[in-house]
Structures are given as structure tokens and as C-alpha cells.
Amino acid sequence: MSTIRLTMAQAVARFLTAQKTEIDGQVMPLFGGVWAIFGHGNVAGMGEALHGVRDRLPTFRAHNEQGMAHAAIAFAKASRRRRMMACTTSIGPGATNMVTAAAVAHVNRLPVLLLPGDVFANRRPDPVLQQIESFSDGTVSANDCFKPVSRYFDRISRPEQIIPALQRAMNVLTDPAECGPVTLALCQDTQAEAYDYPESFFSERVWMPRRTRPDEAELARAADLIRSAKKPFIVAGGGVLYSGAEKALADFAERHGLFVGETQAGKSSLPHDHQANLGAVGVTGTGAANALAEDADVVIAVGTRLQDFTTGSWALFKNPNRRIVGLNVQAFDATKHSALPLLADARVGLEELSRALGTWKAPEAWTGKGREEKARWFETAARYTDPTNAELPSDAQVIGAVQRTSQPSDVVVCAAGGLPGELHKHWKASTALGYHLEYGYSCMGYEIAGGLGVKMADPSREVIVMVGDGSYLMMNSELATSVMLGQKLTVVLLDNRGYGCINRLQRATGGVSFNNLLQHTHHVTLPDIDFAAHAASLGAQAVKVKGIGELEDALKKARGSEHSTVIVIDTDPLASTDAGGHWWDVAVPEVSSRDQVKAARKDYETALAEQRVGD
Ligand SMILES: Cc1ncc(C[n+]2csc(CCOP(=O)(O)OP(=O)(O)O)c2C)c(N)n1
Ligand SMILES: [Mg+2]
User: Fold this and answer.
1) pLDDT confidence of residue 106
2) How many angstroms is it from 484 CA to the middle of ligand 1?
3) Which ligand 1 atom is the nearest neighbour of the CA of 442?
4) Considering only CA atoms, which of 45, 6, 13, 48 is closest in space to residue 31?
5) CB-based burial of residue 513 (10 Å sphere; 0-12 exposed, 13-18 middle, 19+ buried)?
6) What is the pLDDT of residues 309-328, one digit of tens each?
7) What's the average model confidence in pLDDT over 463-470?
8) CA–CA gap between residue 116 and residue 42 (Å, rounded)
9) Ligand 2 center from residue 491 Cα (angstroms)
10) DSSP code of 413?
11) pLDDT per residue over 260-301, tens digit each?
């Protein structure tokens, strides 16, 4: 066996360069790069190793570990999980800064390879700078925080351990069912230790997406159930996009006369104007999709985790006879709420299901209802997004302006605040992946860093990041990285002077406006933040606009620019789209001295009665 003597860190770097993926017949590197913030625990080991492979595996310097991991996660999502990135950090705070991002990837089932540095395996210099020192457990380090939010966690304390660990890591990162974050905590002395690695460990490997075919009996049972349906309805989740099943979904819906509601992760599975697409479903759903979801007797749930925003906290699907067919690669999801599982890749699953259904079509009366509801919704929705002269436009009116100046190939990126709900209802996505919402963890601060990852995944598309003032203040530093890397973003920053959506939620649950909008906080001086000046200081072109007309002009100008641009607009914190949507379970206090809370509790108990438990 021929071997090569490398440090463990050099072996990691070399191994990553040998991993390939095949997209549209073209073999390319699986890893689009490594994000790195060096410190003690990775600068000497991983730093030296990454420098050695920089021509084949670029290293990118970020400003915040959470932000760089967000960029990596967004890159993977925008690449349909077919490409990914790694992230390396120092030990201690550099590492734990990434834990929230690991949770983002875990919830959203997205691949990212996290390589935090760890304490010395030999323990000689203990306690080292940033070592947390457990009194009771000598094996614990700060990196144990990654365990619950990693699909696979390992700590590498001998150089040869990296051989099975990296192979296991690749299984997890590329398996559609298991997919999620992998954390390999790399002890700093081990990174620098040499070992005679077998050459074969570094042979090129081309990873192909596994397309699990349905089990025959499950397929027959699912087809029987769908054939018995009078009111079938499809829920399209992120799995449709990860599988590249858009055409299969369109064919399936057309052939069998079915309508589709899209989750946040599934939005853009069908073009907004496709006859079958009723738009968003669930708590932030369109009136059209929700009308059909409420009545549906068979819900075909494709590639969705069925989170509460999709199921209306399990009160949306009201038909007492409703059954669910769970078409999913992951049994954990396919069997939720007594669903009839159909374990398969979304694309082949839909193709085979269609074959099994033959010429079966949904009843015409039901199809007619879908068409009517869709027409009614579009008329209603336009009232919220049409141009306005209002001094303080709503989020929906800003979305209307962005939409009017956008191109079909644009990608809109968002994650938290009031915007995701408004975008889910109103954004008209024309092409697959044109809508990028991180709404599994809805992590404030994902937006700009995520936008950067989306842009790096496909630089040919214009990326428009929509972000609230709260999210922007929480994390904006990768804006400077976008400037540094020449990866252009257009950021539309909606300044409603605080946490608008949480203030609205607080009021809706009977609370007093308290500690959300800046004016309702404990303060000595009410902040008056000059976001345009802030963005400009990070190197972006920045402008503050007044109203929708100026916003549209600024958006057109930004399109012509090659530079990252931030457009700031003041918006109304109280306005949101009251049409469409569905109840969401947010627990209201059972006792309170406030009459408004008592009233909200009464409404809450009435709503709870609609919640279906366990069926
Ligand atoms: C990291 C993180 N902390 C807290 C929350 C809870 N949260 C959701 S939206 C929100 C306010 C967002 O404010 P902003 O970005 O200004 O959007 P707005 O609500 O004003 O539309 C908060 C605090 C979260 N989703 N993520
Ligand atoms: Mg805000």
C-alpha cells in the first residue's frame, strides 16, 4: 500500500479537494470552498493545510463565524444540496459562534462541514486559552455544544481517526435522507501531527444524488388512497427542489388535475402562474391554497417536514376524513401524523405515483373550486402590493415594488421578521430557487450572509436580500465580505424601528406593546440609526429612499451596478396582510390581570378546539 505522510489537517484539506459532484453531466468540486476565521486551534494546522490547496479549494475569510456558516448553508441550499462548503474556526468562542448556524442547517436538513478547532488531545498545556474546563468530565469541550445540532459529530484526537470520520461525514452530507451538518472537532495538536495516510484515501470520488425508488406495496397503497380522494391536495416542500422534481410535480399536477400549496422551503417549485400553483400554504398561506387545504380529504405531502407554519399548528386540514400521503426520503417525516408513508425521492416518487394512478383525475367540481379560489386570491393580494404614495409603506407594498422591478431569474432572500410571511403570501417566483427563505429556524441575521452564499452558488442570478432593521442590526458584517469578494447583493432594508412582527404578535395575544419597537423599550435616548451610513461604512453603495417611487428608482439603479447596494426605506410597523393566513398556536397566559389577555385566552381556547391531536 503506498502511503503519503501528511499532517491530519493536510489530510483533511487534500481529502476535500478530491470530492466531486456531477451536475448536468459536468464533474466539478463538491466543496465550493472553505470559510475560515483563524485563531489558536486552527491557524497553524488547518491554516497551513488550506494554504497548500488554495488553488483547488479556495479559502474565504469572513467576519463572523455564524455569518460564514450561514453563507455556507445558503450556498448548499441554493445548490440543491449538490454542492457545499466547509467552515473552520478557532477553539472556544470561534467554535461556539457557529452553534446557532449548525442548528439552522440541522433544522433545514442542509449539508455543511463544520471544522472547529478543539483543545489539545495530549492535554499537556491545559487549561489553554478559551478552554471551558468541566469539573466533572475530562472529555467535554466547548464543541460538545454542537452535538444536538449535528447529524454526525466526532472529535479527532489521533490523526488516523480522520479516515473513518471523513468517510462517515461524506455519507451524511450527501445522503438525501440523513443530510445535515457534520461537525468534526479537530484537536489542535492532532491537526499538526503527521501520519502515513494511504494514497487511496485521496482518490477522486464523484458523489451522485441517491434517488430512492418507492417500495411496491407502499406505492400501491398510496395510489389506492389517492384514487379514493374526492378532494386531493398537494403540499410541496423543500424536498421538491432538492430532488429537482419541479417538472415531475408539474406533470403530476397537470395530468391528475391537482392543485399545489407551497411551503416556505418549497416555494418556487412551480412558477407562480402555473395553473396548479395556489401559492403559499399554511399560517402565511394564500386564501386560495388554504381554502383547498381546509377541505382536502387526501393531502399528498411531498418533501415537507410539516412544521406548524405549514399545518396551521395542525388545525388547517379540517376535513374529518383527511388522510396524508407522506412522500419523503426520510421515514421520520413520511410517517408524521399517521401519514401513509411513501418513502422515495420526490422526483421518482411522483413519476411512479403518476404511473400507478394511470388516467385517474381529481373530480371536476374540486378542480373548478381551485381555479376560482386562485383568481379571487390574486385580485385580493394585488390590493396589498399595488403602488402607493404612503409616507410609511407596508412590507407588502415594498415587496410589490421589488417585484415590479425584478426579473424572472432573480433570487429573493429572507429569514426572519414580518417579511417572510408577507413574501410567502405575495412574492411571485417565476423560476425554481428564485425564492430563498430560511424559515426552518427563521434565524435573524441569516439574510445578508445567506444572500452571499446564494450569490456564490450562482453568480449569474441577481440576489435581492430583504431584511428588517432588527435582523440587519443583529448581523450585517458579511456585507463587507460581499464587497470584498465582489459578490454583488442588493439589500432592501425595511426600517420600522424595531421588532414589528413580534410587537404585532404581542398585541394579538393580549399583551401591551413592550420591549419590541424601540419606542416601547427602556431607553435614555431613542435610537435614530443611520443605516445607509452604516452600510456605506462597510463598503456598500447605500441610499435612503422616501416612499415606493424612489425605491423603484433605486432598485433599477442597483440592478445596473456591479457593487453591493443597500437601499433603506422607512416602513409602517403596524401594517400586515390580513387576507389569507391561518391561526398559529402561540400559547396565551391562562391567568392575567389584563382584560385583553383574558379575551385573547378565550379566543385561544376556541382555536385550540380545532387543533387535531395525533391523527
Ligand atoms: C436570532 C433570533 N432571535 C430572535 C428571534 C425572534 N424574532 C423573530 S422576528 C424578530 C424581530 C425581527 O425584527 P426585524 O428584523 O426588524 O423585522 P420586523 O419584525 O420588524 O419585520 C424576533 C426578535 C429570531 N427569529 N431569531
Ligand atoms: Mg423591524
Assistant:
1) 98
2) 27
3) 25
4) 13
5) middle
6) 999 999 999 999 999 999 99
7) 98
8) 8
9) 15
10) E
11) 999 999 999 999 999 999 999 999 999 999 999 999 999 999
Q: Cβ(91) to ligand 1 under 6 A?
A: no
Is 54 in a helix, a strand, or coil? coil
Q: With 0-12 CB in 10 A as exposed, 13-18 as middle and 19+ as buried, what is 557?
A: middle
Contact 516 CB / ligand 1 (< 6 Å): no
Alpha carbon of residue 503 to chain centroid: 24
Pocket test for ligand 1, best of 444, 471, 474 (most atoms within 8 A of CB): 444
Strands 411-414 and 463-468, bridge-based pairing: parallel
- Helix/strand/coil for 19: strand
Distance CA 317, CA 323 (A): 9
Average pLDDT in the chain:
97
Say how far apart CA 56 and CA 241 lie, in whole Å: 28
Instruction: State the cell numbers at 79.
Output: 445548490
Mutate to test the pocket of ligand 1, among 99, 422, 424, 471 (most ligand atoms within 8 A of CB): 471
- Grid coordinates belonging to 298: 387526501
pLDDT for position 209: 87
Greatest C-alpha distance within the chain: 78
With 0-12 / 13-18 / 19 or more C-beta atoms within 10 angstroms meaning exposed / middle / buried, residue 429 is: buried
pTM of the model: 0.98
Strands in 541-545's sheet, in edge-to-edge order, are: 435-437, 411-414, 463-468, 490-495, 565-570, 541-545
Per-residue pLDDT of 56-104, as tens digits, reads: 999 999 999 999 999 999 999 999 999 999 999 999 999 999 999 999 9
Nearest CA to ligand 1 atom 8: 417
Q: For the segment 485-533, what is each residue's pLDDT rounded down to a tens digit?
A: 999 999 999 999 999 999 999 999 999 999 999 999 999 999 999 999 9
494 and 569 in contact (C-beta within 8 Å)? yes
The half-sphere exposure of 507 on its side-chain side, counting CA atoms within 13 A, is 12
pLDDT at 214 over 90: yes
**Neighbouring residues of 578: CB distance < 8 A, sequence distance ≥ 6:** none
What is the position in ligand 1's atom list of the atom closest to the CA of 496?
20
CA distances from 229 to 50, 218, 319, 357 (A): 57, 17, 12, 12
List the grid coordinates of 239: 424536498
CA distances from residue 418 to 278, 423, 581 in whole angstroms, order as listed: 21, 9, 13
* Inter-residue contact 234 to 263 (CB < 8 Å): no
Ligand 2 centre to CA of 588 (Å) is 23
Instruction: Pick the residue whose CA is nearest to atom 23 on ligand 1.
Output: 499
pLDDT confidence of 139, banded at 50, 70, 90? very high
Edge to edge, what strands does the sheet with 19-23 contain?
Answer: 26-29, 19-23, 205-207
Question: With bands split at pLDDT 50, 70 and 90, how would you rate the model's confidence at 1?
Answer: confident
Q: Which residues contact residue 224 at a Cβ distance below 8 angstroms, ignoring those fewer than 6 apart? A: none
Please state the rounded mean pLDDT for residues 343-362. Answer: 98
CA 381 to chain centroid, in Å, comes to 25
Query: Looking at ligand 1, which atom is closest to the CA of residue 418?
Result: 21
* 468 strand-pairing partners: 494
DSSP string, 356-395: HHTT----HHHHHHHHHHHHHHHHHHHHHHS----SS--H
